[in-house]
Every structure is written in C-alpha cells, then in structure tokens.
C-alpha cells in the first residue's frame, strides 16, 4: 500500500471552493423545489394558458391541464432527485472518490442546462413565479460551471490521483 504524505492528503483549496459551490447548488435546488411546491397550481394553469388556443372544449382543456400537470410534477421530481443525489455525492467527492467527481459533473451539467433552458421561455408571459424559477435556474448554472472547473484543476487532479493510489 502506498502511503500518502500529509501534504497530498489535505483537501486542495480549489476543491474546497468547488465543494462550497456544490453545496450552493444544493441549497438553490432545495429553494427551487420549495418554490415549485408553492406554485404548483399556478404553473399548471400557466401551462394550460400557454398551449390553449381559446377554442378548446372542456375535455380538451382537461387534457391540457393533465399534460401540464405531468410536466410540472416531472420537473419538481427531477429537481428534488438531482438535489438529493448531489447532496449525497459531495461527501464522496471530498473523500477523493473519482467516480463521485465524474458523476456529479454529469448531473451538474444536466442540471445547469435545465436551469438555463428557462431562458428559452422568456418569450412567454413573465410572472413573478416564472421569474423566480428562471433566476434560481441561472444561479444554479452559475454555481455549477465553476464548481466543475475547480474540481478538475491540477491540485484537485493530484488529490484524486493520490486517493486512488492509496487504495
């Protein structure tokens, strides 16, 4: 077994900053989930309005409502799951597990792209709820990108390599 020197076992500052940013994304994910819970009905109604032509029958409106509800609940579930998985991966990342670094990067990129996809909805009617969701998504993306970059700096790479050798 290879012994790791005291110098290389210390968590590099770049990786510490990355971990802080990952925790920021978790906090923002919790905020986004809570906000989405409180605005479920408004989001469903907004989805119906967005796809309604105004000449639908009651049955067609109910179909629109159901499809909008599926979209809203799916988004809520996705946000909650990504937030929980990210929170579970952060300690593994701090422990030098490279699989956790790769996994959190993939999840982070998907999450960041999802957050930025709200920019495409800017042409739709802007409400206070949609603006808060958009801002939260942008903040998640802004925290995720540097978290990823910092997790792959030379000192961070050395930290993960040392932990792999120590196995």
Describe this structure in words.
With 167 residues, the chain is mainly α. The protein has helices spanning 6-9, 13-38, 40-51, 58-94, 98-116, 128-151, 154-165. Helix 2 runs antiparallel to helix 6, helix 3 crosses helix 4 and helix 5 runs antiparallel to helix 6 (128-151). The radius of gyration is 20 Å and the shape is elongated. The chain starts with 5 loop residues before the first helix and ends with a helix. Mean pLDDT is 83; it is low at 1-8.
Keywords for this structure?
0% strand, elongated, 167 residues, disordered N terminus, mainly alpha, single chain
Strand and helix map with partners:
Elements: H1 6-9, H2 13-38, H3 40-51, H4 58-94, H5 98-116, H6 128-151, H7 154-165
Helix and strand sequence: HHHHHHH
Helix content: over 70%
**Mean pLDDT over the full residue set:** 83
Alpha-beta content class: mainly alpha
Report Rg: 20 Å
Q: How many H/I helical runs? A: 7
């Amino acid at each position: 077994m290879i012994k790791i020197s005291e110098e290389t076992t210390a968590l590099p500052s770049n990786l510490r900053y990355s971990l802080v940013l990952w925790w920021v994304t978790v906090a923002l994910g919790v905020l986004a989930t809570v906000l989405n819970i409180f605005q479920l009905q408004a989001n469903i109604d907004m989805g119906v309005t967005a796809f309604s032509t105004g000449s639908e029958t009651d049955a067609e409106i109910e179909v629109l409502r159901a499809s909008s509800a599926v979209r809203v609940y799916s988004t809520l579930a996705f946000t909650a799951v990504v937030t929980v998985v990210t929170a579970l991966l952060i300690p593994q990342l701090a422990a030098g597990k490279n699989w956790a670094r790769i996994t959190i990067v993939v999840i982070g990129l998907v999450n960041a792209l999802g957050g930025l996809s709200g920019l495409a909805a800017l042409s739709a009617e802007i409400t206070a709820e949609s603006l808060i969701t958009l801002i939260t998504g942008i903040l998640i993306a802004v925290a995720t990108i540097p978290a990823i970059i910092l997790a792959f700096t030379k000192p961070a790479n050395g930290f993960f390599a040392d932990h792999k050798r120590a196995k």
